[in-house]
Design a protein that fits this description.
alpha+beta, binds flavin-adenine dinucleotide, FAD/NAD(P)-binding domain
Length: 416
């Protein structure tokens, strides 16, 4: 066993773990990152056809962390968000310019973001990065954490003052720490891909709820000209997933048109799709002795409202900020961990309640709820304070906003 004791061991080099490694660059801390997939594989497979909506706060952070410059094209700005529900009255149109901003955030293809983070990881100085390295056991020993890491045929033990579980929904770290999690199966399956429509997006995102779950279009940038290409999601009941997965392009396009309607015009082409079962997982605690959870390991959300990664990134930025402030102290101290749990509590609770509430309420066909929903959408459209709250959530400015996620120059800011 090696006697080196790392300040921080990050388990999981997905979007959140890799972002944490980037945010700790230059902190002077001795950081190790272990990821079970091999380095040659992008952290998001090319087959993943999702478009990720990144909040303005996340874009601020990625700009500051030097990640955005590795994207093949800049994120497509989301300037307006239109929300409606099939069969209910009332719609909401949120406009970024009402809040003194150009955009609520931007859209990037998931594999492009994964590749950009990989490219940035390669540039980091001093990161001890082990790919193809899987955590198989974790224990506490003599005041530090010891992690057994399986790599090819060999098993090595890594010691650290703090272990970060960024290892996704099935988190081995969470299980090894004995942290319970509550789960909920939405019994829905989401298909993500791209679609070309007869009308240009011009920065408009559409969120349309139906009794079978949400359908959404996100603007995609293809250059300086107005783009007719959107990232799309189409949610179906889990039982219908095999049938929808087997549809050809024309069949999927017809389904999307029927579910979404004609607000973006006629759909004329669709790209390849990826399918995703929808489950919620919420860890009952974020911290244990010399360990924290973040990202999907801490909370896996319904993707409605595009909050999951944005929230996980704020987990990572917050921990990085606390670790930098405590740079000459013990990175796994009880005080630091308590501060992390406390700083994440409000943002986490609000974002989870928003995503879960929206997912459950909008897919319930009961008649009294329809009336309530119509009233709620009407109120959202008419009451400025409610609209402002929704807008600040969409921009990622919730709770204690980490320094790196704040606007670089003073601008009009929506109260959270
Ligand atoms: C259809 C869909 C659309 C979405 N759209 C959006 C959106 O628009 N905006 C948004 O903000 N969020 C969105 N999300 C949520 C977002 O994708 C997730 O929140 C985010 O990817 C979570 O990243 P993570 O790094 O926490 O977890 P993961 O991506 O699961 O990464 C975990 C990593 O840990 C590694 N690992 C696992 N076990 C071990 C081990 N034992 N040892 C070492 N490594 C290990 C894995 O290989 C993996 O690389 C969407 C989700 C879905 C399903």
């Amino acid at each position: 066993m090696n006697d080196r004791i790392h300040d921080v061991l990050i388990v999981g080099g997905g979007l959140v773990g890799a972002s944490l490694a980037c945010a700790l660059d230059g902190s002077g801390l001795d950081v190790a990152l272990v990821e079970s997939e091999s380095a040659r594989m992008p952290m998001i497979a090319d087959a993943d056809a999702r478009s990720l909506a990144l909040a303005a706060a996340s874009l601020n952070a990625f700009e500051a962390l030097g990640v955005l410059r590795h994207l093949p094209a800049p994120p497509a700005p989301i300037r307006r968000i239109h929300v409606s529900r099939r069969g209910d009255f009332g719609t909401v149109l949120l406009r970024a310019d009402e809040y003194g901003r150009d955009a609520f955030g931007g859209v990037v293809p998931a594999p492009a973001l994964g590749a950009a983070l990989q490219a940035r990881l390669v540039e980091l100085n001093g990161l001890h990065h082990l790919a193809g390295a899987k955590l198989v056991a974790l224990r506490e020993c003599d005041g530090v954490r010891e992690a057994d890491i399986q790599r090819a045929d060999a098993c090595v033990t890594i010691k650290a003052r703090l272990v970060v579980g960024a290892d996704g929904t099935g988190s081995m770290v969470r299980k090894a720490l004995g942290i319970d999690a509550t789960t909920h199966d939405y019994a829905q399956h989401l298909f993500a891909g791209s679609v070309r429509a007869s009308r240009p997006s011009d920065g408009q995102a559409w969120e349309r709820f139906t009794e079978h779950g949400p359908v959404a279009l996100l603007p995609r940038s293809t250059g300086p000209l107005p783009s007719n290409t959107y990232g799309c999601i189409c949610t179906v009941p889990a039982a219908a997933a095999p049938r929808v997965a087997a549809l050809d392009d024309a069949g999927f396009m017809a389904l999307l048109q029927e579910r979404f309607g004609w607000r973006a015009g006629r759909f004329v082409a669709v790209g390849r799709r990826s399918g995703h079962p929808l489950r919620q997982l919420v860890a009952t605690r974020l911290i244990a002795t010399r360990a924290v959870l973040m990202g999907n390991a801490a909370q896996t959300l319904h993707p409605i409202g595009a909050q999951g990664f944005n929230l996980g990134l704020r987990d990572a930025l917050t921990l990085a900020e606390l670790l930098r402030d405590a740079c000459d102290g013990d990175t796994g101290s009880d005080a630091l961990l308590a501060a992390y749990a406390q700083r994440r509590a409000a943002d986490r609770a609000q974002t989870m309640a928003f995503s879960d509430g929206l997912a459950r309420m909008t897919s319930n066909p009961a008649l009294p709820l329809r009336a309530l929903r119509s009233m709620a959408l009407g109120a959202l459209g008419a009451i400025p304070e409610l609209r402002a709250r929704l807008a600040s959530g969409a921009m990622g400015f919730r709770g204690v906003v980490p320094q790196l996620a704040r606007d670089p120059a003073p601008q009009a800011r929506v109260a959270s």
